Amino acid sequence: MIELRNIETFFWVATLGSFRAASDKLNTTQPAVSQRIASLEADLGVRLFERDARGVKLTGKGHELLSHAERMLQVRRDMFEAAREQNVMTGTVRIGVAETIVQTWLPTLIELVHASYPALVLEIEVDTTHVLRSHLMARQIDLAFLMGPVLEARVENLPLCTYPLAWVASPLLDLGPEPLTLERIARLPIVTYPSNSA
Asked: What domains does the chain contain, in order, with CATH numbers?
């Protein structure tokens, strides 16, 4: 049986033009390289190199077989790459993000995802929670970061964090020290989120 190690040695001797250079490249000894080439020649039943005082050169059959060796080594590289890619997350994830989150921790999240999964593509859609809920249910996005849960059996909700909410008023309103009732608040001009944003 032909050993792939011997084929790799044949490739490097042919490419570098000497047994010594091939032994350096393969981190082995020159006698080990000579033994591998002799073993490969015996397995194939052909002579691969002509040796003289100036070094080694491929025989006609060696030239012919070198392209086969290159393809075999490429197949090995492809095999290792395919095995490695099984552990790499690739593809595209469509993410819906509520406007509030865009202004807070979304940039940090994108940086962390890119650092951990560089082959993963994120498509970001920014909209109101109301719109993103609809897109999630229609499978137009894969996941969504929203303010509040989606109350649907086929959606899994995972609480990530909480945000404190508070009323903020201009001192020009001169509201006084007394606590405000809902009735008084309702009479004031209020800047807030749209009614369909939560």
From this structure: 4-85 (1.10.10.10), 91-186 (3.40.190.10)
